[in-house]
Amino acid sequence: MKNINIAVIPGDGIGPEVIGEGIKVLKAIEARDSNLSFSFTKFPWGCEYYLQEGKMMDADGIDQLAGFDAIYLGAVGYPGVPDHISLWNLLLRIRKSFDQYVNLRPISLLHPELTPLKGKSGDDIDFLVIRENSEGEYAGAGDRLFQGKPEEVALQTGVFSRKGTERIIRYAYEEARRSNRTLTSISKGNALQYSMVFWDEVFEEVGREYPDVETYSYLVDAASLYFVTDPERFEVVVTSNLFGDILTDLGAALTGGLGLAAGANINPEHKYPSMFEPIHGSAPDIAGKGLANPLASIWSASQMLDFFGEEEWGKTVLEIMREMLQEPQQLTPDLGGKATTQDVGDRFADMLGKR
Amino acid sequence: MKNINIAVIPGDGIGPEVIGEGIKVLKAIEARDSNLSFSFTKFPWGCEYYLQEGKMMDADGIDQLAGFDAIYLGAVGYPGVPDHISLWNLLLRIRKSFDQYVNLRPISLLHPELTPLKGKSGDDIDFLVIRENSEGEYAGAGDRLFQGKPEEVALQTGVFSRKGTERIIRYAYEEARRSNRTLTSISKGNALQYSMVFWDEVFEEVGREYPDVETYSYLVDAASLYFVTDPERFEVVVTSNLFGDILTDLGAALTGGLGLAAGANINPEHKYPSMFEPIHGSAPDIAGKGLANPLASIWSASQMLDFFGEEEWGKTVLEIMREMLQEPQQLTPDLGGKATTQDVGDRFADMLGKR
Ligand SMILES: CC(C)[C@H](C(=O)O)[C@@H](O)C(=O)O
Ligand SMILES: CC(C)[C@H](C(=O)O)[C@@H](O)C(=O)O
Q1: To 5 degrees, how large is the angle CA B146–CA B150–CA B153?
Q2: What does the pLDDT look like over B100-113, one tens digit per residue?
Q3: Mutate which of B96, B107, B201, B221 to disrupt the A interface (most A C-beta within 10 Å)?
């Protein structure tokens, strides 16, 4: 009997709604599998908490989370709290504190109608972006000097350590080898002559240990073009924190939008909890109206199942998602349907129950 | 009688071919307009030069160029010369030395068949990206410490000065006001808490002087999604050096590829020469075969005409381009045609002659 102990942070805006449906799906699995159980502990952290308590999470919040197997997060951000405050003190803090240095973001087209691209099908758009998730452009290093004066200058330093760069690139080579796919590194060595030239060197160095893996290396500008014109080129992609951020939203655009885009923030060693989240924001404008699409949140639950060795269930969740996407009218408005957030979760649980 | 004194740097790979056709078009205009003339002075700089002479341009290259009105550049980069060397010593050096702080990149769909997006027409995709072009992530500031050791670290610092940030944002507001379009700033304040929070503040501050301009502000990840799903949202866009690099290649993907993407590196004060270039690379694999599409290079020539007050001719060039794009078989292979680089230039000059 396996129990997965999950800290739930519903967060802001549509976060609670979509996470609720993800939990519904996990409970439906639990009901079907006598060897698997989940326990859920909710944390009220987020921007509302900040506005009441003056902090995004408790002072010992990281300690409180440390004992869990996983964190299941909705969305963070709300008008009235500057984004860089809300995110650095919750989402980004968790990613960094728990060394969740791998961000796994699948870019897979589950139904051809979902892509805005002409003539592309699920065979053409089916890859995995592995985003560095602990340092790089998001190191948080920088300064503002001479504030308000004519000579004012803002400095933002990307910090690429050998350890941090090697481990993400190695993870990506392992994944490419394991799944027998090509590996593409996306960087920008022609302009960023310190960080990205270093990245490219590490990609080559580590690659010597993986002569069986076929590799490509693209500039980020060219890659963003190829995402649109030739998504077939990509199988496993490894890239920096910032480029991964940009490219995975672009990937989401190709596969049905943010309502379907999931992300796993992984500490591969299981030394700390890993975090699973839809990559969309808190969308305060549609919060509480049953309009939010819970499929991204459910997809990220399937990533959780995969990570804990329950790949069969992970696959089943994606199969049901594929089936549900055949009937757009049963989906939320962003996908052309009339269903509410809850309807989609109910139907999902129902279909799971019939498996 | 106006003469525009142009320094021509054909550069590497397909550069000379496409620039040759651009010059052909300018000469055809000269033949039709008794009040306008061009003089062309070629510089042999680039990677071949580097391999022979050990330098990308002459030591006093910047001085040699300083007296020209404009620089017309093909492409830089060739196998055997690391990109960060070739570019920092030629293209990026010119942009910086001549304070070409505005990079104008039109994203306009000239024919509906050219876009890979479903159901989008020229009305939907028609905007201008104004990219900061002199500092920011491309400041060239950084270091590599403890090289080769386990504790190695690469640092790359984005430098955003008040002067540099204000002037590009002000330029963009002026352009939005002049053309009565909305202005969208693209940044990433939620993660890059020094540089991009500063950018956002300056965007707001300068905006107070332009209450008549309708503004939007997007995160770069969201913006890259909207480029694909809702390009209608954009009219004038202002963004940082790196984000502009990425987003304009993405924009090129939406409008027919790099074979059609032009860029103007502008010093608005005319204190130094401005530079006009197709934004594609040197594509050494197809160089010398007549396969390269010269339309990006010709489009950038039309930007040059605009910049020197010859908007009528600039518009005429774009009209002819639109006409030519109606007949794909008369275009280069990247656009589905059978014509050579030269054929396209000849036809263009011919059509100009008939105007
Ligand atoms: C909310 C924001 C800080 C975050 C990021 O930039 O990483 C988000 O865009 C994401 O992709 O997870
Ligand atoms: C060649 C390279 C340095 C350049 C850039 O990154 O600016 C190019 O991609 C561009 O967009 O003009």
Answers
A1: 45
A2: 999 999 999 999 99
A3: B221
Q: What are the angstrom distances between the C-alpha of A114 and each of B120, B151, B229?
A: 16, 45, 11
- DSSP state, B231? G
Candidates A116, A222, A247; nearest CB to B228: A116
Q: Which domains does chain B have, with CATH numbers?
A: 1-107+255-355 (3.40.718.10), 126-254 (3.40.718.10)
Which one of the ligands is nearest to A300 CA?
1
The token pair that represents A140 in the structure block: 């948080």
Residue in chain A lying closest to B226 (CA): A253
Phi and psi for A93 in degrees, rounded to 5? -65, -45
Going by their DSSP bridges, the two strands B102-108 and B262-266 should be labelled as antiparallel
- Residue B248 CA: nearest ligand 2 atom is 11
* This model's pTM is above 0.90: yes
d(CA B147, CA B151): 8
How far does residue B128's CA lie from ligand 1's centre (Å)? Answer: 26
The kind and range of the H/E element at A204 are helix A195-207
3 state SS of B27: helix
Q: CA angle, corner A158, sides to A153 and A162, nearest 5?
A: 150
Instruction: Give the DSSP H/E element, type plus range, for residue B315.
Output: helix B311-324
Say which residues have a Cβ less than 8 Å from residue A54's Cβ, sequence separation at least 6. Answer: none
DSSP H/E element including B142? strand B136-145
pLDDT tens-digit readout, B307-350: 999 999 999 999 999 999 999 999 999 999 999 999 999 999 99
Task: Map B72-108 to HEC letters.
Answer: EEEECCECCECHHHHHHCCHHHHHHHCCCCEEEEEEE
* Whether A198 and B154 lie within 8 Å, measured CB to CB: yes
